[in-house]
Write a structure and sequence with these properties.
This protein is α/β, with parallel strands linked by helices and about 250 residues long. It is built from five helices and twelve strands. α2 packs parallel to α3. The radius of gyration is 17 Å and the shape is globular. About 45% of the residues are buried.
């Protein structure tokens, strides 16, 4: 069994970040003892160097290995450079036990809200997915921007600009899980055999309606994927349960 916590959209800053909520979430997630934490962007609110320095201290409170991709807010004000210095590579691949792969994509563009993967990164992704299919790996792809619209988020303004091409690549390779953030609204879509999961905001004050700060937890076994929505200091419930893909 593999247990993964999926967090997103911290927006570390002076005004839009709720420190108390973050602290409570960190305790909850550490108590789960996940195998890894995946952070799908918008770690900071403005991409300022001092925000990244502050965020790095907060992220160090997590006890599990953490892997992050940048969001549109992180790539403002030269933040796309600062991200690599303080957090790590903007795109990456992780392989566990030779049969479990996680790939992180940088969908951000400097000083723009819209997302874009681009041809070089898309080609790299296709190569990695080809290898994963041959090796019959369980595959997770993480990126900040959503590749399909999210309900209850109003007018669609900044979906991934090359979403169609990326979605085709991911679904034809039967990627098991696509993880994203950006819209601060939890959601699950299933397209063919691929689950597309959007996480809410872990600890920012920028919330729609009565939606609360939350994070996702994935319980992955040989047979199934359980997805739990955990509200910080609140309700925790089964958000979806699905059979594993079989080749």
């Amino acid at each position: 069994m593999t247990l993964i916590a999926h967090i997103s959209d911290l927006h570390v800053s002076r005004h839009d970040f709720d420190e108390e909520t973050f602290m409570n979430a960190a305790v909850e997630i550490n108590n789960l003892d996940p195998d890894m934490i995946i952070l799908t962007g918008d770690i900071t609110n403005h991409g300022y160097y001092l925000e990244f320095e502050q965020a790095k201290k907060y992220l160090a409170m997590f006890e599990a290995p953490l892997f992050a991709v940048p969001g549109n807010h992180d790539s403002r004000n030269l933040g796309y450079q600062t991200f690599e210095e303080t957090i790590g590579e903007r795109s990456w691949k992780l392989t566990m036990d030779n049969n479990f792969s996680v790939m992180g994509l940088d969908s951000s563009s400097p000083d723009e809200d819209k997302g874009h993967i681009g041809t070089p990164q898309h080609m790299w992704l296709e190569h990695q997915l080809d290898e994963g299919v041959v090796n019959e790996n369980f595959i997770i792809v993480a990126l900040h921007h959503h590749i399909v619209p999210i309900p209850q988020t109003g007018r669609e303004r900044n979906v991934l600009s090359d979403a169609g091409d990326i979605l085709k690549t991911l679904t034809t390779h039967e990627v098991d899980l696509i993880l994203s953030g950006h819209k601060h609204v939890p959601n699950i879509w299933k397209i063919n055999n691929t689950l597309i999961v959007n996480a809410g905001s872990l600890c920012s004050t920028k919330l729609r309606g009565k939606i609360k700060n939350s994070y996702m937890v994935y319980n992955i076994t040989d047979d199934e994927i359980e997805i739990f929505l955990n509200e910080v200091n609140g309700e925790k419930f089964l958000f979806g349960k699905y059979s594993r893909n079989t080749l």
